[in-house]
């Protein structure tokens, strides 16, 4: 502090009568040797200077050697500037103190310019972060991949040039690319879906799961990678700058996002690549959540349809009625033009549709299928379901008489198998490009075929039981149903000789006893209420209930009808597999919705706990997390009937 005044005095003396240097009217280029050196330096990758190298150097004076003092100093991360002090009044020799003082001023100027640059850079990063956060919030509210693509385009446009832009969604099962959002020179275009091949950067990104960044010489870069130029639409102008990043979830590619320029090379830099990678990461998570939600919803619809078919089978033995309803479910769920169920004729080699829903009903019913002929005949012969997309172009395809041939007609069929033999056939038709059947469709149709097999088997068995009482008993023994007659007081009157494994006790130990003596307390009131409702009306009353038999938790679906003024006929079917699937799908849907709606991790963990309660006993339940850094296991969520100490534990102690 005591030297402050002398320094101020020296600064005043140093810059007194100093006038700014006039800017030269004309810039004179440096010698050619220097130009060639600069050209060489431009090809070398620029590296940031470390902070200790941010020095000031005294440069050679431009004029009047003893009247001017020039200093070079760092003006930015990769740039330099010159500070020149000129004394035009007289020639002078600059002392070491004066040189040191000017050098200190230049140092301060260098730091000020660097701080200004860092401030501008910080502001830009803050704006980018704000945009990305806003995009993330909006993405979390969408469950449609096309809407997610629109959001990605809108927010990318705020951070970089998107005059030429597209999003690809990749269907791994069908090996197909679709383009929900695409722009060429700011104009919205609608490219048709394409099969995955070996052309273009898009296919390369999907195959390699890596981003592509070609800031310039795009065609040269494609040649280096062995990639052909493939135009997105009618405009075949090659890009001058190209950037594309995949949507990755784990090791799976869901698609990609790309920006390009057809006029200006080096429009995008490494920072743009990093920004687009961040956008792609957020969009990939949203697309995967949407896919999981749609899959869960589809599974729930399929499970509900199978449950409804199961109820129809249990309430009627009219085979044509049941199969017509099954065909209707198939047509509606697959959004198909037609659906039909075939049964064999007397000889067993010819098949005819007895239940058809949709278009060309009479034509399909009149057409006879021969085993081994045509697509449907081969399905019967080989006992294996099959998808045939664009069936008209298949050599084994046969056209149904008196029906019009439609472009892009797709056919899916599965055999109905019972006891190892083909007892029927289910077929579904639909048309349209990009409307092909998928393997998951075949799985669901196979499940419907199993229900149809049960209906066919039940109808066949019912017809046979009408011949004699002994045949009826044989039918009961082969069914997975429990058939009981209760009186109005809940007493077991008769029990059919059904599968003993579905009874709480042997029939001889149950007849004559009351419900409260046989069943657990939680079923007493529901059973008696159902019996009273059946006796007081002419309707069939339905009830679902769980029951523990020999240590196994089973689910039953019962239809209860009035047999006489004081007795009811109780038919219960084991629906354990279907119920577990149904509860599982409900749990998956609840968890998926909780992931999107939960505001905290505690709320999410609680939702998961509640979702699995209908499936398994979860009175004692916890979620554990392992921290590799501390090697501790913590318990962010727990519910226990006994334990109270949930302190962190070292790995290996439990």
DSSP strand content: 15-25%
SS-derived structural category: alpha+beta
Overall body shape: elongated
CATH class of the largest domain: Alpha Beta
- DSSP E strands, number: 24
Radius of gyration: 40 Å
Mean pLDDT: 81
How far apart lie the N and C ends?
Answer: 66 Å
CATH superfamily of the largest domain: GAF domain
Query: What's the architecture of the largest domain, going by CATH?
Result: 2-Layer Sandwich
Q: Major beta sheet, specifics? A: 7 strands, antiparallel
Count of folded domains: 5
**CATH fold group of the largest domain:** Beta-Lactamase
Runs in which pLDDT lies below 50 for 5 or more consecutive residues are 1-5, 20-65
Helix content: 40-55%
Please report the number of helical segments.
17
Structure characterization notes:
The chain has 654 residues and is an alpha+beta fold. It folds into 5 domains: 97 residues, no CATH class; 155 residues, GAF domain (Beta-Lactamase, 2-Layer Sandwich); 150 residues, 2-Layer Sandwich (Beta-Lactamase); 106 residues, Beta-Lactamase, CATH 3.30.450; 71 residues, no CATH class. Helices cover 40% and strands 25% of the residues. It has 17 helices and 24 strands. Strands 4, 5, 6, 7, 8, 9 and 10 form a 7-stranded antiparallel beta sheet that branches. It has a 6-stranded antiparallel beta sheet with strand order 13-12-11-16-15-14. Strands 18-17-21-20-19 form a 5-stranded antiparallel beta sheet, with helices on both faces. A hairpin with a 5-residue loop joins strand 2 and strand 3. The two termini are 66 Å apart.
